[in-house]
Amino acid sequence: MQLLFNTQQLVNNIQHWLTGICELYHLPPVLIVTMVAIAVALALIGGFISVNAMMVVLAERKIAGYMQDRLGPTRVGPFGILQTAADAVKLLLKENIVPKIADKWVFFLAPVVVMAPAVMAYVVLPWSPGLIVCDLNLGVIYLMAVGSIGVIGIIMAGWSSGNKYSLLGGIRSSAQIVSYELAMSLSVIGVLMLAGSLKMSDIIIAQQDCWYIIKQPLAFILFIIAATAECNRAPFDLPEAESELIAGFHTEYGGIKFAMFFLAEYANMFVASAVCATLFLGGWNGIPGLPMILPPIVWFLLKTYLIVFLFIWFRWTYPRIRVDQLMGFGWKVLLPLAFLNIGLTGLVMVLI
Amino acid sequence: MNIDAICALLLSNMTFFALAAIGIICGVLVVTVRNLVHAVLFLAVFLLSVAGLFITLEAEFLAIIQVFIFVGAIVVLFMFLIMLTYKVSDMAVPQGNRLKGAAIVVSGVLFCLIFYIMKAMKWNETAPVVTITDDVARIGKLLLGQYVLPFELVSFVLLAALIGAIVIARKGE
Q1: Which of B38, B41, B72 is nearest residue A149 as measured by Cβ atoms?
Q2: Which of A305, A297, A158 is nearest to A241 (CA)?
Q3: CA atoms A34, A39, A44, A46: torsion sign
C-alpha cells in the first residue's frame, strides 16, 4: 500500500532486483533492464488501451442512453456490462473484405499508421511519480509531434478505399487536423511559459500549489476544444460524419481493421484527456492544501476520466458543425485567442 | 570495455545502418514511383528515418521538430493537395519531365559542392563527449539572443512567402 504512494521507490526496487539477477548470471545489466522495461511497458500499455477502450465505449453508450432518457445496452451480462466485450469478439471474427479497386498495401497499412502514434503517445504519460515510460525533456512537443502523424493514416484510409465518401472524409480530416493542431500547440504555450519546462514531471511538480486551470482558464478551454477536434469526436466528427459520408474514411473497413480505427480513437481520447489532466489539473497531485488521501495514480486516473466524461458529454450535447464553420472557427476564433493568451501570460509574467 | 558498452555500440550501429538503408531506399522510391500518393507516403517514411538518425545522434529536439513540421504538417498538406487535384491522385503520372538535363546538371553541381566541403572538413575521430542536458533552453536562448537578427529575418521571409501564396491564390477570383 505504501508503495502505491511512493511509486518511485517501487520502480527503483524492481530495477535493483533485475540488476541483481543479471549480475548473478553475468548478463549485461543495462541492456537487459532496458529490454525488460520496454517489454513490460508495451504489454501494460497494450492491455490498458484495449480494456480502456472497452470500458469507455460502454460508458459512452450508457451515458448517452441516460442523456437521451433511455437505458443503453442492457442485454449482455448484468446491466449490459459485457456488451462491448461481445462487440469486440464479433469484430474479431468478421470476414476481412478488401474492395476490388482499393490500393491493397495502403489500405492494409492505414489502420496500423493510425494506431501506432496513439500507442507512441503513451510513452510520456505520467501515471505516478517514477511511473512514466520515458520522462523526455521534450515531453509536450513529443506528444504534439506524435499526435500529428495519426492523420496520415486517416488520409491513407480515405484515399486507398477507392470510394468518394472515404476520400472526402480523408480530405476533411487533413484540413481539420492541420488547422486545429496549430490552436492546440499554441494554447499549451501559456502553460509551458509558467512551468518553464517541457518535461511532464516538471509541469506537474510546478502545479503542487495551484493548478494551471486557475491561472490559464482560457488556455484550458482552447485546449479542450482543439483536442476534441484532434480526436475527431463530435461536434468535430466531420471526417466520419455518418449522416453525410456514410462512415467517412472508414466506410470500406470491416472486422479487425475497423476495430483498429475504433481502438485508436479511444486511445487518442484517453491521451488527450490525460494530457489535459496533466497540464491543467495538476496530474498526479492531490487537491492543493489538502492531505494526499488517495495514491497519485488514482488522482491521475480520476482527473483523466473526468475529462473523458466531458468529451462524452460534448458528443451527446452539441450538433455537428459545418465544414466552413469548422475552418472559420479554428482560424478566426481559436487561433487569435491562443495568441492573445500567450501575450497576456507574457505580460503578467513580466509585471509580477 | 564492459559487456554493456559493447552491446550499446552494436545496437547503435545496427540502428544507424537500418535507418540509413530505409532512408536511402525510400528516398529513391520517392522520385521513381509512378503514383504520387505513394511517393508522398515514401517521403513520410524517409523523413521519419531521418528523424531516427537524429535520435541516434542524440539530437532529440531536431528529431521531434522534424516529425512535427515535416511529417505532421508538410506531408499532410501534400496529401491534401494531391487529393484535391483532379485525377492526379488516381492516375500513374510519369515522374520525369522535360527539364531532365537541367536537373542532372544542378544536382551534379550540388553533389560536387557537398562532396568538396565534406572532403575539406577535418573529422574528429574521437568526438569529445558533450552531454547537453537542456538543449531546448539553449536553442531558445541562442535563437532569441545571439542569433536574433537572422531568426527575425527568416520569419520575415516566411511571412512574405505566406502573403505571396495568398495573393497568387486569390488572383483567380
Answers
A1: B72
A2: A158
A3: positive
